[in-house]
Structures are given as C-alpha cells and as structure tokens.
Amino acid sequence: MNDLAAFVDFVRLQSGKLLEQTLEHIGLTIISLSLSIVIGLPLGLLITRYKRGSGTVLGIAGILQTIPSIALLGFLIPFLGIGPKPAIFALFLYSLLPIIRNTYTGVMQVDPTLKEAARGMGMTDWQLLTRIELPLALPVLFAGIRTAAVLNVGVATLAAYIAAGGLGEFIFGGIALNNTPMILAGAIPAALLAIAFDFILARLQNLRRGRLKPALLLFCLGIPLFSSFYLIPNNAKLQAGLSPEFAGRPDGYPGLKATYQLDLNTVIMAPALVYKAVYESDVDIIDGYSTDGKIKTYNLRVLEDDKQSFPPYHAAFLVREPVLQQHPELRQVLELLSGTINDSLMTELNYQVDFAKQSPADVAKAYLKKKGLWQASRSGLGETIVLGSKIFTEQYILTEMLSQLIKGYTDLQVSAKTGLGGTKICFDALAAGEIDIYPEYTGTGLQVILNTPPALADSLSKDKELMFKYVSTRFQERFQIEWLPPLGFNNTYALMMREQQAKRLHITTISDLKHYLEQ
Amino acid sequence: MIRIRNATKTFSSFKAVDNISLDIKERETLVLLGTSGCGKTTTLKLINRLIELSAGSIEVAGKNIQQQKPEELRRRIGYVIQGAGLFPHYTVKENIAVVPRLLGWNKSKTETQTSRILEIMGLSAQKYLWKYPRELSGGQQQRVGLARALVTDPPVVLMDEPFGALDPITRSSILHEFRNLEALRHKTVILVTHDIQEAFELGDRICLMDKGEIQQLGTPKELVFQPANAFVRRFLQERRFQLQLQVLQLAELHSYLQPHLTFTDTNIITLPGTASVLEATQLLSVATYPRPVIALEATATTPALHLGISDIMAAVDKYIQTLNL
Ligand SMILES: Nc1ncnc2c1ncn2[C@@H]1O[C@H](COP(=O)(O)OP(=O)(O)OP(=O)(O)O)[C@@H](O)[C@H]1O
Ligand SMILES: [Mg+2]
Q1: Considering only the top CATH level, what class is A239-310+495-518?
Q2: Which residue of B lies nearest to A132 if distances are taken between CA atoms?
C-alpha cells in the first residue's frame, strides 16, 4: 500500500514530465515505425520480384536486430550525434526485420494460381501487386507492423541512453536511484502504450477499404506534429551530458547545483555513452568517476571540485556476514588488498584495460605480481564464492584481483557475475544472497543504499573516517553485510571536459566553469 | 483464328511441347486431350504468353503474339483456369469486373454486362453479385469463373480443365448447359481436359497429345473410327464402344436399318436424325413395360422408322463391319 501511495504521489508530482516523456515516446515510436514501413515495405516487395536478393536482405535485417542496443547507439554517435536522430535510426533498424520479412512472406504465400489467373486476365505486374498480392498479403503484413510497433515501444525506452527522452528516462533514472515509484512511472505507461499501439493497428487493419485512406492521411499528418518536438533549438554555451544516476542523486548534480549555484544545460545519457559523446563534441561536459581510465583515453580534463561538493567515495569490498562466518580464512585474504591502491594507480589500471586493451585478468595479475601478492591457483574444490561487479572496468579489475587471491590462498572456488547493471541491481543481488562479495563505495552506500537524509550525509561527508564507521555500522545492523577496510582510492564523481576546450576556455575548477557560464 | 507453327517449349533441357503445328478455326471448339504431364496446359499458356515460346510462332486473329504487349493480348482472350481461381478478397461482382476494369469500361456498362453474364451462367444476379467466393459452392464458383472469362465477349476463350474439380453429377449437368450455351456458340474455344468423355462431348475437334507431341488431330468420329496410331488406339481402348455410339448419329445408320412396320407400341419416343446413337440406346435400355420404341423422324429423303434396341445394335454392327472392309 505504501508503494502504491508513493507511486500515485510520484505520478501526481511529475505529471508534466510524465506527459512530456509519453509524447516523446509516442513520437519516437511513430516516426521510426513510419520510416521502417516506408523503407521496409518496398524492400520486402522488391525481394518478391528479385528473389535472389531475398536471402541477403533478410539476413542483413536479421543481423541488425541482434546488435545490442547500447553498442548500436554507441556506434551511431559519430555519425548522428546524440538525441532523437540516432535513437530513431536505431529503432528504425530494429523494426526493419519484421516488416520486410512479413511483407515478403505475405506476398509469397499468395496462391500462385491466383497470380497466374490475374496475369492471364491481362494485369500488369503493378496491377497484380496492388490489386491482388498486396490485399491478400495484408493480414500477414499487418502482423509484421504490429510486431514492429510493440517492439519499438519497448526498445524506445533505450532512447533515454542518448538524450532522446521518452519513458526510459524514468525507468533508467529509477533503477539508478533505487526509486521504485519512478521505475513504475516509466514502465507502466510504456506497457500501456504497447497495448494501445497493438489495439489501434488491429482496428486499422479491420477498417473497410473505403475508410483506410482517411486514416492513412490522418497518420501522415500526425508525423510532422510529433516530429516538431525535436526541432526545439538548443543554443546553450556548453552542453552537459549526464548519466541518470548522477543527475538524480543528491550528492551528484543536485549537490553540485547547491554548492556552486551552477546551472548547466543538461541532457540525460547512458553512462556507457557519455565519453563517446563528449569525445565527438556532441556534449561538452560529462560526469564520470575520478579513476576512470577513459579520462586518459579520451584526453579529458577532470575539473577540480574546489568546494568539496562531491562526498568521498572510498572503495571497499562488501561481504555478506554468513560467508565470513562460514569461511573465516577468507577475511585475511580479502584484507590483503586493503590500503594498497591509490587514485592514480587505479586510473592507470583502468586505462590499461580500457585503452591498452589488456584483459582485466591480466592487469589484475600483473598488479598482484608487482606487489608480491600473487600465488598460483590451488585449484581447490571447496565451496564456491560468487563475486559480483557493476558494469565498469574498475569493478571488473577489482573482482579479478579478488578472484585470483581467493584461488591462490584458499581452496574455495570462485564464480563471477560481472556486469550487474547499477548499484541497485548489485546490492539487491548481494542482499538476496545471489552474490557474496562485490566492490562498493562509501558514498554510494551512504546515499543510495541507506538513503541518508541530506543534512546528515553532508556532515558525514566532511570526515572520511567517520563516514566509513557510520556506513559500516549501519550495514551490519540493517543488512548483516560487512564493509572490509577501504582499498585506498577515492573514486568520487567528477565533472570532465575535453582537455583542448578546457584549456582554451581556461577552465580548471568547477568554479571556473561557473564563471565562464555566467559571462 | 489461331495458327500455331512448330511451337516448342523447353524447360531447361526437357521438351514440354515439342514442335507442334495446329490451326484452330473460327468458332470451333478444340479440345486438347492427353494424359497428365503431356503438355496440354503448356500449349494453352503459350497462346496467351503466360509461357513464352522457345521456338516457333503463334498467330491469333492474324497477328503474331510476340509482336503484342502480353497484357493487351491477354485482355482480348478469355481465360478460365482450373478450380475457377476466383480472387477471395473480391465479391462475385468485382471478380467478374476485373477485365472490364482493365479495359477501362465505364461503370454502367460494366454493371449491366456483369449482371447479364451472371444470369446467362444460371446464377441470379440479385442473389450472387455481392457474395464472396468462399460463400459459393464449387459448381457456382466454376460458373462465376466462366462468367469472368466471357463478360467482355472475347472472340477467343482458353479453358484449362474448367470442370476439373466437380463431382460427376454437377459436372455432367454443367457440361450439358455448357454445350448449349449461346454465349459460347460463336467463339473460338480451346479447352484442356484429360477426361475423354468431356472431350468427346464438347469438342468439334480433338487434339490428342502425348509427350509434348500431337498424336492425332481430328473430329471425334475420326479419332474413334480412324485412330492414327497405336497410342490413339490404346488411349481410347477402354471406352471404344461407348464412344462409337456417342459419335454416330441415328441418321448415319439409316441405310443399315430394317424398318419395323408395327405401330402397336404405346411407349414411343421421337428423336431427330442428329441425335446420337448413344442417346437412343440409353433411352431404350430403361427397363419399363411396355418397352419403349424410338420413332426416328422422317426427312426429305428418308421415311420415318420405328426402332427397338436390337435393330439399332444390328445396324451399328453392320456399319463397323463396312468401315473395316
Ligand atoms: N515451369 C516449369 N518448369 C519445368 N517443367 C515444367 C514447368 N511447367 C511444366 N513443366 C513440365 O512440363 C510438362 C508438361 O506440363 P503441363 O503442365 O503442360 O502438363 P499437362 O498436360 O497440363 O498435365 P496435367 O493434366 O497434369 O495438368 C510436365 O512434365 C511438367 O513437369
Ligand atoms: Mg494442366
């Protein structure tokens, strides 16, 4: 009941934003669907005439559909930038297959004797197509369009990854912030939209032939209307591309706003894509982590947080207490790494993986060897410890180090569940006992998991020892999860710009940025 | 009306139609007959260019078909395909109006002709114009298929097993109507069938094919009484006697008949001299009492005769004997 009330509250407070996102979502879906009909339908018809091309065309459309969406969006940034353009293009590519395939099979399954009867009576190829084949293929063809529409409503949530808006903003924002009402406020309308699209298209299919034309006309007039959403001019001095987590967390952008009175022109993007976007100059300012190897890769400048707005984020392993009780020998091994890695070292390790393309396992091994900590795996047959990590390099490397240490020093076995999305997914997995250990940051624990009130969080942030003590005590009490001693580095939030641009504009600190924007 | 010269159709290396030459006269019904796969359909489709010739030439109404646009050629030739081939998304009316639309007829002409042809085919326009093919029986579909091919009154009509999918009873009733159809009387019809009975009932001439070649081209009578080769003989073997009775007319037996003089019979059926012998024997073989007698009408040169079944059989026997001599 509490959740329901929270949900209703959220929707009421955010109704304006919800309406905007829903309209954006409909716009994205309709425009991309229209595009794929306009391209896919003729293409499908074409391969019924040149059957030799059918395998190739259907094959390519099939492969397009298997490309992971984030990868596809990342691939499109250099060509189409960020915003609705690449989102629409990606959606268009995804929905191409059902439309081409159903057009093709719909026409191919028309009884050949009917085609011959039509030609025997003197129809031209065009007349055969428009009067016989298309009408008879219509049910199958429409099924394809409906599939594509429902698919597009779903995939359009990913538009939020590249600042194209839509209901994905709530969904991904909600996941990043561990905010269930927010997730639901995006997911429920998206599901309803899918049902609505399917229903309307089904009705359209059953319209009598005479009424189809006005319906199509209406549809064609609707497209420019929805397109106009995306024509709002943007003439900000500097454009910021922020990940949903940073944009929503009190210690992220909201905190920054309060400390510096900074007002950035922001769009929301997937964390995996912000670096590419800033590198391609689609945005100028991004958020990131201070130890990220990509800082070096993309030649970015980390703006100094001169007013200490970002709270400390000291990395440490989170372990379920029952695991430590069952395997007391584990504690010693886990603490081998404590205090051994500083900021610049972590950035370097990250860089080796991100840019030098070494595997996290190799980098971890090299580091352990250098520190004299590495031991060959004992190939033990003991119980299995499950390690988790979020989707970024640093976590992969830390998990690897831990895995090699456990295998080298104990007889336990290790399995890894890497790439567990954001904080919420990782922590929920840990709390549910699906994983045993994962690397976390004190600031994240304080803000995201404990939901500490801002005033208390602010005061704790000033003292890193005090903060660690607070966080670890609370975790023990509430979740029976232990914070091991910090690893040493502080992977806090950071604002970054392209080195060249920052140099040209003389911006080294966040205060500089504020001054520049106010000039 | 149609001249086929050395027509050959090769599929990869297989000769489906092998060097066929054939003239089809105006207003005649020519039946292409033969076993499955002998090239009947292929020959038919060569005429409206649904299949293109590999070699040879075809003229329709004095014009080489290669020198015309296929669509225009086809719009001037009626085409009936096996199983009617009606378009399921069109009503009966729309199905029949396909060719009129292609020819650009105006609405009122199309409508009057559509209704008229449907009535000629024995279907009430009021009742059937708005039905969809799935609402019709097989026989009704067949009729609509015929109506569709005939609505524009084309001089040439091609039919590929138009009665193929029907049960024997419906089929024989449609066949009967078909033969007496005024709308077809003045047309050049090429009809494909593998049914001997149908061929002999409908054909003015029959072209018997095998392995892509013509085995014999002639009137039904010629095929029965003067088979050109062993294949023709074997092909008609099973039905020979029945076919003989079917192709002979009563008048042809005149000189072999012994006239009866008794007029005491009460059950007398009068037939014209053009009636087939088969029809007469069928009427006589009905087991009723008193047994019927055929009264053959008098003509300018011959007197009226009364015939029993044995009279007719004896005459047929003599006729065949003379032929064989
Ligand atoms: N498109 C084609 N490609 C290859 N071979 C074909 C093609 N069409 C017909 N044939 C072959 O040509 C031969 C004659 O075919 P056709 O359709 O003319 O036979 P048909 O006399 O109409 O037989 P049926 O009574 O079974 O309809 C058959 O052996 C058939 O396999
Ligand atoms: Mg055939």
Answers
A1: alpha beta
A2: B87
CATH 1.10.3720.10 placement within chain A: 2-231
Lookup result for tokens 């309406």: A19
Is ipTM > 0.90 here? no
Share of chain A above pLDDT 70, in %: 95
Please state the rounded mean pLDDT for residues A19-27: 89
Q: How far is the CA of B44 from the centre of ligand 2 (A)?
A: 9
Alpha helices in chain B (DSSP H): 40-47, 70-75, 92-96, 98-102, 107-120, 125-128, 138-150, 168-179, 182-185, 196-202, 220-225, 230-236, 240-247, 277-284, 309-324
Whether the Cβ atoms of residue A493 and residue A251 lie closer than 8 Å to each other: yes
pLDDT digit string (tens) for A325-379?
Answer: 999 989 999 899 999 998 878 988 999 998 888 999 999 999 999 999 999 999 8
Contact assignment for B148 to A121 by CB distance below 8 Å: yes
B42 Cα nearest atom in ligand 1: 18
Contact B50 A114 (CB under 8 A): no
Domain with CATH 3.40.190.120 in chain A: 239-310+495-518
* CATH of region A315-491: 3.10.105.10
Ligand at minimal distance from the CA of B51 is 1
* Residues on B contacting A at a C-beta cutoff of 8 Å: 45, 48, 50, 71-75, 79, 81-83, 85, 87-89, 98-99, 102, 148
Count how many pairs of residues, chain A against chain B, have C-beta atoms within 8 Å. Answer: 48
Q: What's domain A2-231's architecture?
A: Orthogonal Bundle (1.10)
Are the beta carbons of B260 and B294 closer than 8 angstroms? no
Instruction: Identify whether the C-beta of residue B99 lies closer than 8 Å to the C-beta of residue A122.
Output: yes
SS3 A133: helix
SS (H, E, C) B261-294: CCCCCCCEEEECCCCEHHHHHHHHCCCCCCCCEE
State the DSSP code for A387: E
Report in angstroms the alpha-carbon separations of B205 from A207, B156, B210, B217, B250.
52, 16, 17, 7, 20
DSSP assignment of A140-177, as one string? Answer: HHHHHHHHHHHHHHHHGGGGGGBT--STHHHHHHHHHH
- Residue A434, CA atoms < 13 Å, CB-side half-sphere: 11
What gap in Å lies between CA A182 and CA A21, rounded to an integer?
13
Query: Taking CB atoms and an 8 Å cutoff, what residues of chain B touch A132?
Result: 87
Per residue in A421-443, pLDDT tens? 788 889 999 999 999 999 999 98
Residue linked to tokens 């500089």: A512
Measured in residues, chain B has a length of 325
pLDDT of residue B297: 77
> Mind telling me how many Å the CA of A121 is from chain B's nearest CA?
6
Residue B256 has pLDDT above 90, yes or no: no
- A86-115: average pLDDT: 92
What is the C-alpha separation between A432 and A443, in angstroms, rounded? 22
The span from the CA of B277 to the CA of B307, in Å, is 11
- Answer whether A270's CB lies under 8 Å from A69's CB: no
Residue for token pair 């059957």: A51
Residue A387 CA to residue A436 CA, distance in Å, equals 6
Q: Where in chain A is the domain with CATH 3.10.105.10?
A: 315-491
Nearest to B122 by CA among B100, B104, B144: B144
What is the rounded CA–CA span in Å between residue A473 and residue A489?
21
Question: In whole angstroms, how large is the CA radius of gyration of chain A?
Answer: 27
